[in-house]
Design brief:
The protein is of the alpha+beta class. 40% of the residues lie in helices and 22% in strands. The chain folds into two domains: 297 residues, Bira Bifunctional Protein, Domain 2 (BirA Bifunctional Protein, domain 2, 2-Layer Sandwich); 86 residues, 3-Layer(aba) Sandwich (Rossmann fold).
Length: 410
């Protein structure tokens, strides 16, 4: 028996309905903030991803040559494709551009809980705006999108200028090593490494910075900088908007990618792999042939969000099954159409068995049974049975649709 490829999944109807509902909620929030949906190809030129990350990333990607000998890759993420599209198609559009996307990505890595080789991202990119308010908008949008997904999460916001100021004392290779220790929260390893490189006092300042939760204390450690007022304004906007967050100046990931503000979100119930969102301010357009353009965005790990939700119920939709005799088939088809036009899930019984057997089968998947025989056909009415209570009544088609619609929690 053939199996699905490792790191991929099959989704049965119940799970797909849950995923689509959460996806719908996220899309609706993005739209209310003025963001519009975009879509990029599932595969791109390999160089799009190696131009920034280097050849080493190839080991983590699905790479292939097409029949013309072109080196292509299934997209491992979506920010680079979106900025490539901006350079190709969007440079003349009025800015700022507010774009969002929902799409699958592919990475060749070891599958584990919440991490797959095919996975989905919901993301937002704000292109062409460069201010504290623009950065705050992206954070606030991310907070609202995670809130409507139904998970419990914590939001951490930082700024890379803090860490860059202290790490600037080190050579590039030493900076990379120090960031690795900070990211792993390996303080002993950080202290030992910096001591061996002649920077014994720096580890204490880095650890103190990572532990700060007050902006004034951060500035006391890093000293004054030209970014101080803009950074302070960003956090003022978040406070004025009642956003619950933790100031985290110790965020060291993405120093080679992001240019300033960075933020992350962590969900409960996911163990060590609990990050469900990451984002910040960046500049990538110039790498793909465009002008240097300020941008800010984030990506949500949609699969991790769904794992964090667990068995959390979503509102269901009332469904109706139609049982009918051969003589009532024409009227049954017409009645079913009216229910569907009202947005009600309506399924015809396809077995051709007796009415009793049809109703018994319908009761496994529907809330109501619509019973139609020759009498209902002649009188242009229907018999509606509530399968949840066992009661049934004869109604006009209009009244039957109204009654079922009234019980639909949409």
């Amino acid at each position: 028996m053939l199996q699905k490829p490792r790191g991929t999944r099959d989704f049965l109807p119940e799970e797909m309905e849950s995923r689509r509902e959460v996806e719908r909620r996220m899309r609706e929030v993005a739209r209310t903030w003025g963001y519009r949906e975009i879509c990029t190809p599932e595969f791109e030129e390999l160089e799009l991803f190696t131009i920034r990350s280097g050849e080493g990333i190839i080991q983590e990607m699905y790479v292939f040559e097409d029949k013309g000998g072109r080196k292509l890759a299934l997209r491992p993420e979506l920010t680079a494709p979106v900025l490539r599209m901006y350079v190709n198609e969007g440079r003349t559009l009025s800015k700022p551009l507010r774009w969002f996307y929902f799409a699958d990505c592919f990475r060749y890595e070891r599958p584990q809980k919440g991490r797959y080789r095919q996975f989905w991202q919901f993301g937002v990119e704000l292109i062409g705006a460069d201010s504290a308010l623009a950065e705050a908008e992206v954070i606030m949008l991310a907070n609202e999108i995670l809130s409507v997904s139904g998970i419990t999460f914590s939001l951490h916001v930082g700024h890379l200028s803090f860490m860059r100021t202290l790490l600037g004392e080190l050579e590039p290779e030493d900076q990379k090593k120090a960031r690795m220790f900070l990211d792993k929260k390996d303080r002993r390893g950080l202290e030992d490494y910096l001591s061996s490189r002649g920077h014994a006092g720096l580890s204490e300042r880095l650890v103190a910075l990572a532990d700060c939760r007050d902006l004034n204390e951060v500035f006391a450690i890093t000293g004054e900088s030209q970014d101080m007022e803009r950074i302070a304004d960003l956090f003022r906007i978040l406070d004025q908007s009642n956003i619950r967050y933790t100031l985290n100046p110790g965020i060291a990931r993405g120093l080679d990618y992001y240019t300033g503000m960075v933020f992350e979100a962590f969900a409960e119930g996911l163990g060590a792999e609990n990050q469900v969102l990451g984002g910040g301010a960046y500049r990538l357009a110039h790498l793909f042939g465009g002008e240097d353009t300020p941008s800010c965005g984030f990506a949500v790990g949609f699969d991790r969000v769904m794992v964090a939700r667990g068995e959390h119920d979503l509102p269901g939709r009332v469904a109706i099954g139609v049982a009918f005799t051969p003589e009532g088939r024409e009227w049954a088809l017409a009645a079913a159409k009216e229910f569907r036009n009202a947005g009600i899930v309506t399924m015809l019984d396809l077995s051709g068995k007796s009415l009793g057997q049809q109703i018994s089968h319908i009761s496994r998947t529907a809330d109501y049974a619509l019973i139609i025989g020759s009498r209902e056909r002649d009188e242009r009415c229907v018999t509606l049975k509530d399968l949840r209570t066992g009661t049934q009544k004869e109604l006009s088609l209009f009244d039957a649709v109204s009654e079922v619609s009234g019980g639909d929690p949409r």
